[in-house]
């Protein structure tokens, strides 16, 4: 088996492979050369810009493509530091080549290459968490999905108004301003580039039946925006939000006031929020089917460069911790790291032979350093070995707000 990045004239072959593997239709009219040249010369999306960032496994003839995945870079923030995350998507294997190690081979080649290219993290949305744990990925971002009966909402006493986004009123800068509040707060949020906002420029609510509203305070400050569409469920007509962002309680209340006006035509509104945005006290009624909330697991994270992440991380106060990492795919991580921190920031990160305060696999390390959970979860992590006090370890590993809203 041969594993390598694809050539420009192999882009279409990966699309065909995906369509066959997942039994979905594709546009098969363009030539491979036209697809690549036209798309990359004038990219309209991140997919376009990084069209060639795909790893594939071939039979020994170096021609017969068996498996592939996309590995797109995203600029993100981790503990208020700028870094790069690789989003893995499109993971596909033709049926006749499954269980032959094609995807494993792609990860074995791609992960060390990510490290050499200065990447800090990788992220993916799994079809199986058990499968991707074999490559060092671990469960990460969690969200709360709310379903609230519109008639259970009571109007909030806010003085601002909601405005519909359309071609005459795009309000792009207002949307950016609201999004950037979350971008700067949550670990792993993508630092959007212009093409991430292309959906705003193409807004056509009458045609697409997707409605984006921006809430502005009485003084004109943008404090929230949401995009929703009608979703029929058996005999119900509900509103489902694909985007729901707000900067403060007024922003949330202003958006809810707009949704309340839809109660005569729709039963529920459905939206997702990060786990630290607890809105239950703001809705007066939750019993008798008025509302419910469920937790969703949204993807898996992997640290690609342990030393880089330790240098960027925020700590609690002063201290030193020796962390031993087990990483079967990136040998530069398969070491013990001594991190010395002062005033909440790393002063040095060095490879050491000193006895480890904590030993853990790259997956558990990834989950802990991103801040998905605090050290109370350590007792449930069978492969983690702790040799220092909980107080000492809690200065490095503690719960932090994290969220990823991009899909790939």
Instruction: Using the alpha-carbon principal axes, give the shape.
Output: globular
The span between the termini is 27 Å
Structural class: alpha+beta
Main β-sheet description: 7 strands, mixed
Q: Estimate the mean pLDDT confidence.
A: 95
* Spans where pLDDT lies below 50 across 5 or more residues: none
CATH topology of the largest domain: Aminopeptidase
User: Order of strands across the biggest sheet?
Assistant: 1-2-3-4-5-14-6
Annotate the secondary structure layout.
Layout: E1 2-5, H1 11-21, H2 32-41, H3 46-49, E2 54-58, E3 65-78, E4 81-93, H4 102-116, E5 121-124, H5 129-133, E6 138-139, E7 142-149, E8 161-164, H6 172-185, H7 198-201, H8 205-208, E9 210-216, E10 222-233, E11 236-246, H9 249-260, E12 268-274, E13 291-297, E14 300-303, H10 306-312, E15 319-326, E16 336-342, E17 345-351, E18 358-361, H11 362-370, E19 385-386, H12 390-393
Parallel strand pairs: 4-5, 11-12, 15-18
Antiparallel strand pairs: 1-2, 2-3, 3-4, 5-14, 6-14, 7-12, 7-13, 8-9, 9-10, 10-11, 15-16, 16-17, 18-19
């Amino acid at each position: 088996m041969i594993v390598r990045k694809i050539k420009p004239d192999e882009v279409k072959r990966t699309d065909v492979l995906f369509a066959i593997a997942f039994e979905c239709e594709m546009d098969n009219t363009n030539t491979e050369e036209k697809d690549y040249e036209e798309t990359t010369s004038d990219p309209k999306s991140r997919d376009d810009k990084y069209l060639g960032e795909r790893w594939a496994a071939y039979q020994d003839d170096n021609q017969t493509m068996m498996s592939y995945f996309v590995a797109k870079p995203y600029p993100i923030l981790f503990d208020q530091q700028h870094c790069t995350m690789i989003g893995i998507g499109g993971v596909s294997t033709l049926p006749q080549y499954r269980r032959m190690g094609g995807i494993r081979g792609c990860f074995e080649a791609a992960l060390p290459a990510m490290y050499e290219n200065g990447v800090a993290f990788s992220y993916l949305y799994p079809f199986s968490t058990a499968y991707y744990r074999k490559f060092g990925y671990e469960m990460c971002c969690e969200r709360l999905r709310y379903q609230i009966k519109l008639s259970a909402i009571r109007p909030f006493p806010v003085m601002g108004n909601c405005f519909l986004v359309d071609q005459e009123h795009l309000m792009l800068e207002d949307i950016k301003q609201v999004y950037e509040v979350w971008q700067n707060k949550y670990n792993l949020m993508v630092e959007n580039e212009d093409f991430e906002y292309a959906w705003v420029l193409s807004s056509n609510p009458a045609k697409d039946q997707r409605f984006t509203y921006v809430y502005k305070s009485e003084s004109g400050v943008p404090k929230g925006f949401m995009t929703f569409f009608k979703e029929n469920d058996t005999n119900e007509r509900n509103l489902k939000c694909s985007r729901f962002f707000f900067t403060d309680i007024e922003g949330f209340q202003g958006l809810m006031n707009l949704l309340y006006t839809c109660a005569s035509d729709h039963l529920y509104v459905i939206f997702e929020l990060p786990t630290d945005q607890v809105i239950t006290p703001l809705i007066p009624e939750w019993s008798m089917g008025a509302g419910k909330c469920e937790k969703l697991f949204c993807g898996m994270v992997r640290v690609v460069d342990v030393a880089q992440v330790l240098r960027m991380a925020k700590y609690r106060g002063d201290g030193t911790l020796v962390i031993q990492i087990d990483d079967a795919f990136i040998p530069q991580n398969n070491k013990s790291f001594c991190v010395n921190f002062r005033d909440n920031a790393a002063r040095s990160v060095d490879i050491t032979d000193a006895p480890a305060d904590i030993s853990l696999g790259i997956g558990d390390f990834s989950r802990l350093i991103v801040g998905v959970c605090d050290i109370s979860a350590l007792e449930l992590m069978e492969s983690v070995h702790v040799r220092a006090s909980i107080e000492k370890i809690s200065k490095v590993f503690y719960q932090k707000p994290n969220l990823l809203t991009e899909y790939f």
